[in-house]
Amino acid sequence: MPSLLGHDDTALAPARDESPAAIWHGTPDLGQANELSAGCSIGHLGIEFTEVGPDHLTARMPVDHRTRQPLGILHGGSSVLLAETLVSWAATFVAAPGQACVGMEINANHLRPVSSGWVTGTARPVNLGRRSQVWEVRIVDDGDRLVCISRCTMAVIDTA
């Protein structure tokens, strides 16, 4: 499997007075994440990774015929797929060499209907443990209103 991180596999060291410290092992490669995601459900729904920060990963998804339910609003399953996609990639970017992360549990609260435009999800860790990770994903609409909040637990497993 190709490396999902940039050339430098060491942890990022932020400059003084930056907050918070980077959580990634190496530099996450969003271009490669988008490329590898294009041929599966992630790409089919139009999900695009847009930003990586020192402690978060962000992606957006269109609200269109692919992601709406018959009543014309964003399907809750589409929101969950966006949340799980974000957490799966973020957990992969955090995992140490020789480890991988697999999903154990996800939940979501759908708070506001959206019928058009884009929704943007941002994943941030709640806890990065040695054997499990817990992440929160906040999904907002174009007006920055909270649409969905999700929490996902990942198991950290050894691959070597």
Write up what this structure looks like.
The chain is α+β, with helices and mostly antiparallel strands. The protein has three helices and six strands. It has a single domain (30-158), classed as Thiol Ester Dehydrase, Chain A, CATH 3.10.129.10. Strands 1-2-4-5-6-3 form a six-stranded antiparallel sheet. A hairpin with a 5-residue loop joins strand 5 and strand 6. The protein is globular, with a radius of gyration of 16 Å.
Distance between the termini: 13 Å
CATH class: Alpha Beta
Number of domains: 1
Strand order of the largest sheet: 1-2-4-5-6-3
* Helical fraction: 10-25%
CATH superfamily: Hotdog Thioesterase
Radius of gyration equals 16 Å
List how many beta strands DSSP finds.
Answer: 6
| Percent of sequence in beta strands | 35-45%
- Which structural class fits the helix and strand makeup? alpha+beta
Helix-strand pattern: HHEEHEEEE
CATH architecture: Roll
SSE layout and pairing:
Elements (H helix, E strand, L loop, with lengths): L29 H8 L3 H4 L3 E5 L4 E6 L13 H19 L4 E12 L7 E11 L3 E9 L5 E13 L2
Antiparallel strand pairs: 1-2, 2-4, 3-6, 4-5, 5-6
List keywords for this structure.
disordered N terminus, 35% strand, alpha+beta, six-stranded antiparallel sheet, 19% helix, Thiol Ester Dehydrase, Chain A, globular
Task: Give the structure's gist in a few sentences.
The protein is of the alpha+beta class and 160 residues long. The protein has helices at residues 30-37, 41-44, 76-94; strands at 48-52, 57-62, 99-110, 118-128, 132-140, 146-158.
